[in-house]
From TrEMBL:
SMART domains: AAA. InterPro entries: AAA+_ATPase, ABC_transporter-like_ATP-bd, ABC_Transporter_VariousFunc, P-loop_NTPase. Residues 2-231 form the ABC transporter domain. This is ABC-2 type transport system ATP-binding protein. GO terms for molecular function: ATP binding; ATP hydrolysis activity. CDD domains: ABC_DR_subfamily_A. Keywords: ATP-binding, Nucleotide-binding, Transport. It comes from Aureibacter tunicatorum. The lineage of its organism: Bacteria, Pseudomonadati, Bacteroidota, Cytophagia, Cytophagales. It comes from the Bacteria.
Length: 235
């Protein structure tokens, strides 16, 4: 479970976040929507402890993150738009490497199994990652999250640039992790996916969360209209 309490972030005299409150419970997929510069990545970076908030607090499973940052990071996996993997290592070798950094050692069969169950074709798992498509690299990220038993998944536009089939496969994997009780926070510009995959949708604008809703409350057309209205509304 992930919570933000009154998160504020200033970069110089620019207020990037103006008091964000949000909760992502176990088994929820919270999709953050908002125009470029709304503050989505800043929010995710604070959750990841990449940057510190100017004010406010992050709670991980109810505990302030700064109380035990190592433990909090152990629970999390981050998949950005372009997952950084070692291009000359295979999928199996990358997975092994990143798991070992986190103190986890799996045997070869388990590593292979994790990649295959994350949708990577078995004839690719021993090939160098430089031969992988973007969708295949993102699946290595999912395999890492599953192998780590991560309970929190933070995603920053993970399917941008993926073709519809690859994007579909990736979102199916997110839905499976949701069934396993993972708390997922995903920044996205894809309203359709936010509606179809998300359990909750937050619309950010100029550093504020201007709307939060449960995705079953709204159909896709109304979400699109609401989003566009929020974007043009003068405050
Ligand atoms: N390190 C930084 N230094 C100064 N300003 C920053 C920094 N990081 C972000 N900002 C500013 O904070 C605001 C929020 O940026 P952020 O990257 O969080 O937006 P975003 O919603 O993720 O946008 P996008 O959809 O383009 O990824 C922007 O005005 C951005 O210019």
């Amino acid at each position: 479970m992930l919570e933000a309490i009154n998160l504020k972030k200033n970069f110089g005299d620019h207020q990037a976040l103006k008091g964000i409150n949000m909760t992502v419970n176990a088994g929820e997929i919270f999709c953050l929507l908002g125009a470029n510069g709304a503050g989505k990545t800043t929010t995710i970076n604070i959750f990841l402890n990449f940057i510190k908030p100017t004010e406010g607090q992050v709670l991980v499973d109810g505990e302030p993150m700064e109380k035990n940052i190592k433990l909090a990071r152990k629970k999390m996996v981050y998949i950005p738009e372009n997952l950084m993997l070692y291009p000359h290592l295979s999928g199996v070798e990358n997975l092994d490497f990143f798991l070992r950094i986190g103190g986890i050692s799996l045997n070869k069969e388990n590593l292979e199994q994790q990649l295959i169950s994350s949708g990577l074709q078995d004839n690719f798992i021993h090939r160098s990652v430089s031969t992988y498509s973007k969708g295949m690299r993102q699946k290595v990220g999912i395999a890492l999250a599953k192998s780590k038993n991560a309970s929190i998944l933070l995603l920053d536009e993970p399917t941008s640039g993926l073709d519809p089939k690859a994007s579909n496969e990736f979102h199916d994997l997110l839905l499976k992790m949701k069934e396993d009780g993972v708390s997922t926070l995903m920044a996205t510009h894809d309203l359709f996916r936010a509606k179809s995959t998300g359990t909750h949708i937050g619309i950010m604008k100029n550093g504020e969360m201007v709307k939060t809703l449960e995705s079953h409350e709204i159909d896709y057309q109304d979400l699109e209209q609401l989003y566009l209205e929020e974007m043009v509304r003068l405050d």
